[in-house]
Design a protein that fits this description.
Number of helices of chain C: 10
Mean pLDDT of chain C: 89
Radius of gyration of chain A: 24 Å
Structural class of chain A: alpha/beta
Largest sheet of chain C: 6 strands, mixed
Oligomer: heterotrimer
Strand order of the largest sheet of chain C: 5-6-7-3-8-9
Number of strands of chain C: 13
Chains: A alpha/beta, B mainly alpha, C alpha/beta
Distance between the termini of chain A: 41 Å
Shape of chain C: elongated
Number of helices of chain A: 11
Shape of chain A: globular
Strand content of chain A: 25-35%
Radius of gyration of chain C: 23 Å
Number of strands of chain A: 14
Distance between the termini of chain C: 46 Å
Low-confidence stretches of chain C: 309-314
Structural class of chain C: alpha/beta
Largest interface: A-C, 49 and 52 residues
Helix content of chain A: 25-40%
Strand content of chain C: 25-35%
Low-confidence stretches of chain A: none
Chain lengths: 310, 295, 314
């Protein structure tokens, strides 16, 4: 297994007519799961089209799995699986037939395609529905079979475009779990494009964030999230309104302000740990029920990166 | 006594070469045809196409066994012989079956994919637009060749072996090439036209109506232009005349009166046919666009 | 005082297909999150409430009036449906204007309100563009503008965030929170539970057309007595803390999470355990880095309540 980047682009530029979409875009994506983020109109779609070999960049170069982009889209697509955002299925076909057909389009011999179709359908949890017509599938099942058809030829890279679209909470959990499982096997890398940052955070270790055709943030998600050691967010339970607790905290030198989500944001005085909170709580007759160091979510990282740009 | 890992296993095989990837699409559609709803009509067409060829074969048989005709006192000398004209007629006789076959099998080929938004399913695979279109064309072209070139060549060979002998093959050695060339042109044109119509709409039935409309429309146009200019030159617009003229030329029948009466040459007819086919492909190329795979 | 929205034993069938089944609920001013698996009946509930569907049984009241019969009450309802149907040839401003004119506003006033609403959802720059040229996120925001342009008191939003990018989501959630704080009655359905969690603790869960739970999510969690209360802690020496806590009588189970220096406590008597925990922390001078209740949020409550109930499972 090499540590070569699976996707690498440098100086990529593209414009539709006079509207620039990508401006001198450069980044690298390594193995594993990477979120590809950006607000509407950031150029994500165009980037995907270039990486899949459907568009030729005006300037710049790049490679997917070491295969240069531009002319050799078919060679790239041989080694990637693409799960489109929108429905793109043949409703009159049985699930197993559809997936096997996709396998054949990847070049699997018929018998192996059929065998593989059964395997991946079991894998994505559609084992019971293998002989049902795809047109009768629910939203969640359609998302799963879209994943199955992308996985059928064991791609080296899986491009997922809004894979949790339209799924209800349990369906989303299961889809994210599947994606994590695929990555955990170590053979397949995932490029995860989504507007739901929570899902990206759950499934990916790295992100590349683009805006107006440029990379604004990239790196490991863990490194991007700032932690403010001295600031903790607290929720408590008390018989009364708890004003006494807040005042007592202030007397101890803590700065208190209301935070998001009904939480109290407390800035601890220098050199003091969290036990001061418990002491004050005990004295004021309240119970601390939730305590967490303030740390950015991926959404905070995203929104602040977008704002800096503006 | 191992416990086998039931987790995700990647496929470790080697993909087949890409050059016949398009055949996957053709094979898929052909295998679906006999399970779909048009099955009975399809069988009817194939049976009638076969029957027409059977009649020609029967004629070859009786001509080889003249005593049968003499028994019934039929004057053999007055009957048309088995020559280039005979085989051209055998292909031309399939016009209607070819047309119906094209309409039934071809109307939904791309229209259904557009309706279901299934084109991204194909083009996100290692498949070019050309291969996609080629695969769809094969669905029409192979059956059309199957009811034109293949049985006609069979009748040709049977006549050669049965009654024609050395003299026949020496005279008509060019005919097999003509049979194949004409059939291929018919298949290519019908396929391209049908696919083009099918790619314009999202409903197969409408694609069929478009093709019928185009067929009637361009003939009416030819007639109207002929009428206005009081000439026969505009016959060249009409593709069925083009194919007939081309057939006469390919089968070496330039000298017959019918060919002389056409106001244009076989080469010109071929030009018109090729131009029409190219136009259909150009429209197809505009309609099936890989950039729409990612939305 | 009459509640802004009240449903009494409301059921709705489509032929033989069940939409919602015997729902009795009142919505109070503020934001209510409407949650449920696919096919649970969320859209039906919202449509029945908005007076767009006739309930097969039961009674719907908006400020005491029946929205199906009394057209006047429509002025006080804003509804954002989950479909995507627009007149693509119109501009955003013209579309809103026409809709406001139908609400009975004079031309000038309608125009002013339309631009106000577009400004609110951040579409002011695109007001004169054809709707056909809008992106998915912009169409969603236009739907939102359409729902609130006439300044209704009851706002019903069916999956308003679907297809929006993160910037749009944040903006919309902030708007919804503001409407709630202004005293409007807002019901919002969404599948993205943590966004609802951050928006409001007042939820309403339905599944198979039936009401599963409604009210404050933490109180609802407290009612689910078959699931022990969980407390997750992280500190420098989890093993030492765990050994102290296992001695507490009310603690049912303590498990160590070695990778993250954490311990998970399960109990049926959280009050007592939190008391003892506070005591231990103070006595031993333990510095707690993280203390949270992993199943006291919308996601966990949803999972507990809908387990095995999803209509959309493969």
């Amino acid at each position: 297994m090499t540590s070569d980047p699976i996707i690498q682009v440098s100086g990529l530029s593209f414009a539709y007519g006079k509207t620039p979409v990508l401006n001198d875009l450069s980044f690298q994506i390594g193995r594993g799961a990477t979120g590809l983020l950006g607000p509407n109109g950031a150029g994500k779609t165009t980037l995907l089209k270039i990486l899949l070999g459907f568009l030729r960049p005006a300037r710049g170069s790049g490679a997917v799995l070491g295969i240069p982009i531009g002319r050799r889209g078919v060679h790239i697509r041989q080694r990637i699986g693409y799960m489109p955002e929108h429905d793109c299925l043949i409703p009159s076909l049985k699930a197993v037939r559809l997936v096997a057909y996709c396998g054949e389009l990847y070049g699997l011999p018929w018998a192996e395609a059929m065998q593989r179709a059964h395997e991946v359908l079991f894998y994505v949890g559609l084992g019971e529905a293998r002989y049902r017509e795809v047109g009768t599938f629910s939203t969640g099942m359609k998302q799963r079979i879209k994943l199955a058809q992308a996985l059928v030829a064991s791609p080296d890279v899986l491009f997922l475009d809004e894979p949790t679209n339209g799924l209800d909470p349990s369906g989303r959990q299961e889809m994210l779990q599947l994606i994590k499982d695929v990555v955990a096997q170590g053979e397949t890398s995932v490029i995860f494009s989504s507007h739901i940052l929570h899902d990206v955070e759950a499934a990916c270790t790295d992100v590349v964030m683009i805006k107006k055709g440029r990379v604004v943030v990239s790196g490991k998600i863990e490194d991007l999230k700032r932690v403010e050691e001295a600031v903790v967010e607290v929720r408590w339970k008390s018989a009364g309104d708890g004003d006494g607790f807040v005042q007592a905290l202030a007397r101890e030198g803590c700065r208190c302000e209301p935070g998001r989500n009904d939480l109290l944001r407390v800035t601890l005085p220098p050199g003091k740990g969290t036990e001061v909170l418990f002491r004050v709580a005990r004295a004021s007759g309240v119970q601390i029920r939730h305590l967490m160091r303030k740390r950015d979510s991926l959404e905070d990282v995203f929104l602040s990166a977008i704002e800096e740009q503006n | 006594m191992p416990v086998y890992d039931q987790h995700y296993h990647p496929w470790a095989g080697k993909p087949r070469p890409r050059w016949h990837r398009w055949l996957v699409i053709t094979r898929y559609h052909l295998s679906l045809l006999f399970t779909g709803k048009g099955r009975n009509i399809l069988i009817l067409i194939l049976v009638s196409a076969g029957f027409i060829h059977f009649c020609f074969l029967a004629y070859v048989y009786v001509m080889a066994n003249r005593q049968i005709l003499e028994q019934y006192a039929i004057p053999v000398e007055r009957l048309p012989g088995i020559n280039a004209r005979f085989f051209l007629t055998e292909i031309i006789a399939q016009t209607l079956t070819v047309a119906i076959l094209t309409l039934i099998m071809g109307a939904g080929l791309i229209a259904d994919d557009r309706r279901d938004n299934a084109i991204p399913l194909y083009l996100s695979k290692p498949l070019t637009v050309t291969e996609y279109l080629l695969g769809k064309l094969g669905v029409l072209a192979l059956p059309i060749l199957g009811i034109t070139a293949v049985p006609t060549l069979l009748v040709f060979v049977l006549h050669w072996l049965g009654g024609g002998g050395k003299e026949f093959i020496l005279t008509y050695w060019r005919l097999p090439f003509a049979i194949v060339a004409l059939s291929v042109l018919i298949a290519l044109f019908c396929g391209a036209l049908m696919l083009m119509a099918s790619s314009l709409v999202k409903k197969g039935a409408i694609a069929g109506v478009v093709v019928v409309g185009l067929f009637i429309g361009h003939n009416v146009l030819a007639g109207v232009l002929n009428g206005i200019f009081d000439s026969r030159k505009f016959m060249i617009i009409s593709l069925q005349f083009d194919f007939y003229r081309l057939g006469l030329w390919l089968f070496g029948l330039e000298h017959v009166q019918e060919a002389q009466e056409f106001p244009f040459s076989g080469l010109a007819a071929a030009g018109v046919i090729l131009a029409a086919t190219a136009l259909c492909w150009a429209i197809l190329w505009r309609q099936v666009r890989p950039v729409e795979v990612v939305k | 005082m009459t509640p802004p929205v009240a449903l009494y034993d409301v059921s709705k069938w489509y032929g033989e297909v069940l939409g919602i089944n015997g729902i009795t609920v009142q919505l109070t001013p503020g934001v209510t999150g409407l949650l449920g698996p696919n096919g649970a009946g969320k859209s039906t509930l919202l449509k029945v409430t908005a007076g767009l569907l006739w309930p097969s049984r039961g009674r719907v009241e908006i400020f005491g009036a029946n929205p199906w019969r009394e057209v006047e009450v429509y002025r006080r309802i804003g509804f954002c449906h989950d479909g995507d149907g627009f007149y693509d040839a119109l501009t955003g401003a013209d579309f809103l204007c026409a809709s406001l004119r139908m609400h009975g506003y004079a031309r000038q006033r309608a125009r002013a309100l339309a631009y106000e609403a577009l400004e609110l959802v951040g579409l002011a720059d695109e007001a004169r563009k054809r709707i056909g040229a809008y992106s998915k996120g912009m169409r969603q925001r236009l739907k939102l503008a359409h729902a609130v342009a006439h300044n209704p008191d009851v706002i019903l939003l069916d999956e308003p965030l679907a297809g929006m990018d993160p910037v749009g989501r944040r903006h919309t959630l902030d708007l919804v929170a503001r409407w709630g704080a202004e005293g409007k009655t807002v019901a919002i359905s969404s599948h993205i539970l943590h966004e609802i969690d951050a928006l409001t603790s007042n939820i309403m869960m339905i599944s198979h057309g039936r009401l599963l739970a409604e009210g404050d999510v933490h109180e609802v969690r407290g009612l689910l007595r078959e699931h022990p209360h969980q407390i997750y802690l992280e500190c420098a020496e989890p093993r030492a803390l765990a050994s102290r806590l296992i001695a507490v009588e009310q603690v049912r189970q303590v498990s160590l999470d070695s990778t993250r220096r954490g311990i998970l406590i399960e109990t049926f008597d959280p009050d007592a355990v939190y008391d003892r925990l506070t005591q231990v922390v103070i006595e031993d001078g333990v510095s707690i880095d993280l203390m949270t209740s992993p199943d006291d949020n919308v996601q966990a409550v949803f999972a507990y309540l809908t387990r095995g109930r999803s209509d959309d499972s493969g």
